[in-house]
Amino acid sequence: MAKRVRAAHVDHTNGLNRLLDEFRGSSEEVQRGKKETVSQRKELAVRQSKLQHQLTLLRERQAAAAAAENFEEANTWSVEMEACQRDLDQTLRDVRSILERYDRQEEERSSLLRKEVLARREALKFLSSVSQDADAKAQQYITDAHAQVEAERSAAEKGVKVCSERLEELRTSVSSLTEEIEGRLDKGAMSVCKAELEASNQALSAATSDKEAIEAQIAALQRALALKVEEEKGCLRRVGEARDAMRRLEEEDELGSAALRRARDQQTLEVSRVEEELASSRQHQESANSEAELLRDAEEDGL
């Protein structure tokens, strides 16, 4: 029974470790993808900043040309502004696409963390069930073994008592026969008494052999009881090992839950920061569009 419990514990632990390794591999792959996404986001942010700066310079030049009534040059700057604005719009679309991909990667990573935590919890439930079942079976096995050994020991003691009483009766009979033989003088009676004495000695020898056999049986039962006690200690030790494994899984479960909470908090902060950047980019774009409209109106008024 203990071997079956230990084998089930080892098999389940190995399976759990393989599953957790798969989760960790997928999580590391997602993490690498997130790092690549963040790197691309930084590159797009630099590009966005350059385009916004370039668009500001083009507006200033177009406004200066319009103020100088150099409409041909102002028109040239307007064309370049439109091209720069298109590049900026495309960059903003790329930024939104990057952010959506980052959100998907973060959700996938959170899902993997949740699966890992759930796997640990299921393993904890299974090991708890196995430990409780093993504990109950071991206790029942020990109780039954003790009862069996106690019954056999009691029966052996009764047998020894019966043999001792029979031996005492035979000794008394031998003593009585010896006295009777000594009291008789005729040879015929002496021969009969000797035969009876020999038969009594044989019965006494047989009773002694039975007593030795029963004593040997008692010694064997005592050795069996000692082995049962050792098995009990082994079962209790293995149950203790299973409980230690359960405690380790509980600690790992708590660590996994904490990691999931930290990942969610980090995701929330990252999303807030990106939303702020998008809002700022939209404000810059709206401001740029307003300035472009004003410049177009000024150009039309000049024309």
From TrEMBL:
Q: Which residues form a coiled coil?
A: 88-115, 160-231
> Which residues lie in Polar residues bias regions?
280-290
Q: Residue ranges of region Disordered? A: 271-303
Superkingdom assignment? Eukaryota
The protein here is known as Uncharacterized protein
What are the entry keywords?
A: Coiled coil
